[in-house]
UniProtKB/TrEMBL annotation:
Family: Belongs to the 'GDXG' lipolytic enzyme family.
Residue ranges occupied by any BD-FAE-like domain in the UniProt entry: 24-206
Protein name (record): Alpha/beta hydrolase
Organism: Micromonospora trifolii
GO molecular function, one term: hydrolase activity
Amino acid sequence: MTRAGREFSTSYRAADGSELPLLVFEPAEGTPPRAGIILFHGGALREGSPNGFAPHCRSLASREILAMSAGYRLLGRGAASIDDCLIDVRRAVEQFGRLAASRGLDAPHLAAGGSSAGAHLAMLAAMTPSSTEFGVAALVALNPAGLNLGSFEPDAQRRLAQEVGIAADRLTEYSLIEFVRPGSPPTQIHHGTRDEVEPIGSVRQFRDAMVRAGNECTLLEYAHAEHGFHYPGTGGHFDDVIDATTRFLLDRTATT
């Protein structure tokens, strides 16, 4: 393990022209990064900030990984719907790719991910078609949400669609299990068995669907852990999450 290096804040431009924060954490000077990852915070698309992932990024940078944490427009604060949030995630990844390239990393050495709603956005952007290629080779999801929205009762689907600013009949457009295809990026999921937001059963169904399609999808289950278990001081799982994420990234995306 190396010590962490330079940390700084920059920005990228959202579709509405506003500037959104992008925190950058680099390995120590003289240590070229072997892989890179961009993370998106949770908060039900209405709360949270990139600062929430600063401890994760700092720890990953000490392990020769270029790590970034990005903001995106939130509902009620610049975003009219989840569509705006998703557009921002794609734009953030484009900026991440440019910064990573200047440090010798191209798309096969990059990953995206996040926590809860942020994990959902990163996975959705990687697994759904767009006008531009989503330039990452792997995904890391910490207690992701939205894996199987079609399993919700109709009333719950209508409420959730309204909450994220879309028509009720569009909700399955955001259900990740609907987009599982052969060739989906290798994915590592960290999830607590007592998660109260996304039941572990839904996560297992998604994992199984990915494997049936011929994709690599590893689910790391944390016994008795609830939503948000991966933060420092919350259940004592932080180091295990960082260690497993590091191994996954260096095994699948690292430069030689």
